[in-house]
């Protein structure tokens, strides 16, 4: 096991402990490796359910025409496309991602889907979002929060950018609500997803990390508490697919 100098900040990268300053680069390597097959793997791993989860999040957002939305860890643009349809030509959707390969993929997908005039693309770290004066009506992070180094810092970074009355949506893998489902989920996740990653992308290790990162992510109640600590109010969560995924919402007042 790798040792770290006394006093050095550490965090987890899957089940490994790493220096906090190294995690962003390690996660970046994962998403550079899987970017080309990212969407195909999402469909295969979730049996298509990720589309329903994202639809539910978009419907819960209450985003409407003319509003401004920030999609953090936007990836290939699945959530951004949903928001762009809602805000229309007089609204604005900003896609932010720390990974250039994923942001490029998102830009290509948005262009192919016919969205251009109301979309911005920003290379940005969720912990240090470089926006001032935007006052976003909604900020979303879907399946990206577990990959940041300091979750409380990222939540605070997003919360400060909301206008009064604006909401934060966190869509993320979470903890199944029954023991039987948790056991089945473990068997599926560790037994099938890494080999599937090897078959489809040639990269088993990246998908092993992604499975491990889900297990290290805070459970529903812990994440809700972290959102309140970041200054958000009226925090609630919805369990989806038996808690395999949860949508957390919080408001800025």
Instruction: Give the structural class.
Output: alpha/beta
Please provide the ordered H/E string of secondary-structure elements. Answer: EEHHHEHEHEEHEHHHEE
User: How many domains make up the coordinates?
Assistant: 1
- CATH domain fold name: Rossmann fold
Global shape = globular
- In CATH, the homologous superfamily goes by the name Vaccinia Virus protein VP39
Largest sheet: 7 strands, mixed
CATH architecture level-2 label: 3-Layer(aba) Sandwich
Q: Indicate the CATH class.
A: Alpha Beta
Mean pLDDT: 92
Give the number of helices.
9
Number of extended strands: 9
Binned, the helix content reads 40-55%
- Rg, please? 17 Å
Q: State the separation between the terminal residues, measured CA to CA.
A: 46 Å
Give the low-confidence spans.
none
Beta-strand content? 15-25%
- Main sheet strand line-up: 5-4-3-6-7-9-8
